[in-house]
Amino acid sequence: MHSKLIKEQVGERAFVVVFDPGDEVMQGLRDFAMSANLIAAHFTAIGACQDVILGFFDPETKHYQKTVVRDQVEVLSLLGNVAIHQDRPKIHAHIVVSKRDATVLGGHLLEAHVRPTLEVIITEAPRHLWREMDEATGLPRLKVS
């Protein structure tokens, strides 16, 4: 994974992050957020992955139902944010991928391995965001200050 700061002004930075083949996306985003000291940010990405694990949150069980996609897929859209939860950056990401036959799948991104590249633009938010556990949903929900 390689990154570069491409814009900086008071309270806001923007980065380009390019993942290498085999990199795990969620761990890479967490590692980058830690190294860049991101407290609040949002991101978009395109590229391709394989071994993608999608999640669909079931409010009854308060767990994610998983769908595993082993094939290489095109990342049509990867959107998400970074916010502090339990004193660490937490990544919340949703992804839409297309299979070779143009079948489209999407959901909460739990895991994916880059193949051959993933290009991410991360923009730091000028306001602080954090997450607090919401007992009703069982999820760490986004708060703003």
Computed over alpha carbons, the radius of gyration is 15 Å
- β-strand number: 9
Integer count of domains: 1
Give helix % range.
Answer: under 10%
SSE string, helices as H and strands as E: EEHEEEEEEE
Please, what is the CATH homologous superfamily? Hypothetical protein, similar to alpha- acetolactate decarboxylase, domain 2
pLDDT < 50 stretches? none
The largest sheet is:
7 strands, antiparallel
Amino- and carboxy-terminal Cα gap: 32 Å
What is the tally of helical segments?
A: 1
Strand content: over 45%
Which CATH class?
Alpha Beta
Shape: flat
Which secondary structure elements does this structure contain, and how are they paired or packed?
Blueprint: E1 2-9, E2 12-19, H1 25-35, E3 40-58, E4 63-69, E5 73-85, E6 88-98, E7 104-124, E8 129-134, E9 139-144
Antiparallel strand pairs: 1-2, 2-7, 3-4, 3-5, 3-7, 5-6, 6-7, 8-9
Give keywords:
145 residues, 68% strand, 60s Ribosomal Protein L30, Chain: A, 7-stranded antiparallel sheet, 9 strands, mainly beta, two-stranded antiparallel sheet, flat
